[in-house]
Design brief:
There is one protein chain. Helix 1 packs parallel to helix 2. The chain has 10 helices and 5 strands.
Length: 215
């Protein structure tokens, strides 16, 4: 595990302390939407988000927490650059996630910054629907005109294959960990918070993938 990941919680707590000393009145923090931190396969990474939220609350500063779901934008990283030829190979089971675009999450943050009424509130920033990697494969098939399959990989074989391709250890831990959490339904929570902050429904999976892949 990288030093950055190990020390992130303490570093972010230090930022909160400095912000308070500098006279900052309101902190808006973007964390993660997760069902159960205690059973997360990537607790070593996710814990810092909740530790930072606790530190902000304990500081007495006004806060707004925006807990982000998984980004649709990172799907290409997980499925690989040859997805249209080789399909999707991930140990994510039939788990789902309410994928949403980073640009729409960013727009929601901007609206929070520009508006009143978000003081001491926590928002779960999710897409409007849950999607599995079977859904991702189907959407990519429809968009490309090619047959994109999804293989629910064996976790051990998946990790070994990444090692064979000389993928860095930290990237392997991250990829396998996010896949395991999705398999274990850690991300299966949908709210209207993003829709309400945008004033419209966020893009559905197929439209978002069309934008990302420029199809």
């Amino acid at each position: 595990i990288s030093t950055v990941a190990q020390n992130r919680g303490e570093q972010q707590k230090a930022v909160v302390e400095v912000a308070k000393k500098a006279g900052v009145q309101h902190i808006i923090y973007t964390g993660v939407s997760l069902k159960d931190l205690s059973t997360s396969a990537i607790k070593w990474l996710m814990a810092s988000h909740f530790e930072t939220e606790d530190a902000i609350k304990e500081s007495g500063l006004v806060y707004t927490f925006l807990r982000n779901a998984l980004y649709t934008d990172v799907i290409p990283m997980y499925v690989g650059e040859h997805v249209f030829e080789a399909g999707i190979y991930l140990p994510a089971g039939d788990g789902k996630a309410p994928f949403a675009l980073r640009r729409e999450m960013g727009e929601a943050v901007a609206n929070v910054l520009l508006q009143d009424g978000h003081e001491n509130k926590t928002y779960e920033i999710t897409g409007s629907e849950l999607y599995s990697y079977t859904d991702v494969a189907q959407a990519l098939s429809e968009l490309s005109g090619k047959s994109v399959s999804y293989t629910n990989a064996d976790p051990t074989e998946f990790t070994e294959k990444l090692k064979q391709f000389n993928v860095p250890e930290f990237a392997i831990l991250l990829t396998a960990g996010f896949a395991e959490d999705q398999k274990n339904h850690q991300f299966e929570e949908v709210t209207n918070d993003l829709e309400n902050l945008l004033g419209r429904k966020p893009l559905a999976l197929k439209e978002a993938l069309k934008e990302i892949y420029k199809l």
